[in-house]
Each structure stands twice: as C-alpha cells, then as structure tokens.
Amino acid sequence: MSSEPAFYAYPFDAPFSEAVRIGDTLYLSGHxxxxxxxxxxxxxxxxVAQMMAxxxxxxxxxxxxxxxxxxxxxxxxxxxxxxxxxTLFAACxxxxxxxxxxxFGVSQLALDATVEIECVANL
Length: 123
Fold this sequence. Notes:
The chain has one domain (about 5-10, about 15-120): CATH 3.30.1330.40. Helix content is about 20%, strand content about 30%. It is of the alpha+beta class. It comes from Asticcacaulis currens. This is RidA family protein.
C-alpha cells in the first residue's frame, strides 16, 4: 500500500478535499449539519443527525460505514452539549465499538453551526 497521499475532491465544488488517504488511513474533512443546499438543520439534535448523515454519505463514497471510524474530533460552540452529543453519536453505532474522541469548545463554526466533526477511518 502506498504511503503517498491520495486527495479526493468533494462531488461538489469546494475549496478543499473531502478526504485524504495515506496507506490504510482515510482522513475526512470536517462535517456540520447542513443539507445539500447548504441549509443548517434547526436544533442541536437535528444538527447532529444531519452531520452524521453527511459523515455516513462521505464514508459510503469510499465503501465504508461508520464502524470504520477510529478517531473523531468534535467541536462545539456550547460545551454543555457534550454529553448530549455523546448520547446521539453513540446511538449511531448500536453495539459496535466506538472510535476515540477529542472534544473542543470553539467560539464559532461555519454557517453558525453549533457542532462540527472531523473523522479518521481505517480502510
């Protein structure tokens, strides 16, 4: 397996790559809870649900599912939502093992989202 990075563009116009593959590791760009038209879901739970749907769709383009995730970084504009995020995120996995996680409080995210996730997957 080559250790040279392979860059994958989004299926739409974006000023950055959707993912970069190095060896058996896939690094995904950050995802927020916006739909295909760029509209942000309303409410924290809806944002997380849409965000995870976006991550799932991104992984599917590489023939992967959520259980391929090995690490996530979550950014929240309100750290009091961290426990709620963990509950919603874990529900996406059922009884499958969960990836490692780091969480950061931030002052602002794109489109005024309240949560963003970056993911690393094993191929």
